[in-house]
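Why should sequence recovery work at all? Because a backbone constrains its sequence more than one might expect. Tight turns favour small or flexible residues, buried strands favour hydrophobic ones, and helices have their own preferences. The token representation captures these environments compactly. In the example below, the structure is given first.
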């Protein structure tokens, strides 16, 4: 938890309490439904929580905005972002039902009123969103196919509406077809070695009715 306070020192008491509860909640759920590897559960705050919050270092979400987390798994990056931005609406989806059960259980225990979690494929999601976030569920070209019609027309943030994608390694080839991507190195925001090769990819998407 120290690592979260280190990079986000202005949390409210409620946010600190919610972040603190994550470890026990995930250990409890993980014993029933395995969503995080054993090695990672011991590094939950750095490898999952802080990694998810890397998106917040690139773009803070405004009150009333809507964010879709595709392939959320156990709730990352959606749950940490929903704690950090209580005035933003989050929808978390995954095609694997038992993972969504964990997300719903954690969100309920934290009393996150700004989050809903659904067992569904990204293509089936209705509505429009300011941003679509994810942690490397597939290659960017495939991901764009899933979500390109779900971006709201009007941009209200510094960054244009579109995708904010957490990804590691060399992305040159994968992103070569997209001329408008911007890459943000998480090592610019976080000191730990884990973040050396980790990035947030921003890909603005045009509104498609």
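From this structural description, the recovered sequence reads:
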């Amino acid at each position: 938890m120290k690592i979260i306070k280190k990079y986000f020192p202005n949390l409210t008491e409620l946010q600190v309490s919610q972040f603190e509860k994550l470890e026990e909640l995930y250990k409890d759920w993980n014993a029933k439904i395995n969503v995080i590897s054993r090695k990672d559960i011991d590094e939950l705050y750095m490898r999952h929580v802080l990694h998810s919050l890397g998106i917040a270092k690139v773009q803070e979400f405004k009150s009333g905005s809507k964010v879709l987390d595709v392939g959320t798994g156990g709730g990352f990056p959606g749950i940490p972002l929903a704690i950090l931005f209580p005035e933003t609406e989050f929808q978390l989806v995954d095609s694997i039902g038992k993972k969504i059960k964990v997300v719903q259980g954690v969100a309920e225990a934290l009393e996150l009123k700004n989050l809903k979690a659904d067992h569904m494929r990204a293509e089936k999601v209705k509505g429009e969103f300011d941003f679509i976030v994810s942690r490397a569920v597939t290659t960017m070209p495939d991901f764009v196919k899933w979500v390109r019609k779900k971006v709201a027309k009007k941009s209200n943030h510094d960054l244009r509406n579109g995708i904010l994608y957490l990804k590691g390694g060399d992305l040159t080839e994968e992103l070569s077809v997209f001329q408008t991507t911007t890459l943000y190195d998480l090592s610019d925001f976080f000191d730990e070695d884990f973040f050396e090769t980790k990035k947030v990819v921003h890909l603005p998407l045009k509104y498609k009715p």
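A few observations help interpret the result. Residues 13-32 form the longest helix (20 residues).
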